[in-house]
Description:
Layout: H1 2-31, H2 36-48, H3 50-60
Amino acid sequence: MNGFLLAQLLNFGIIFLWLALLIVAVIRLRRVPLSDTSRAIWALIVLLIPIIGSMTFLLLWRDSRSAHRPS
Length: 71
């Protein structure tokens, strides 16, 4: 029974992490100065590669106020 509860808590944590990263990435994606094509590509990456896509976007675009692209 404890193993089942632990597995359920782990699943809940992963889903919560995914939703939190998704929400933050989408909000920040709207604020970053990108072309419409780049914005659409990043939106697809964030949605189709759930946790890794969001984390990659957030790491590359840390400061949403900067007008330069990451190198």
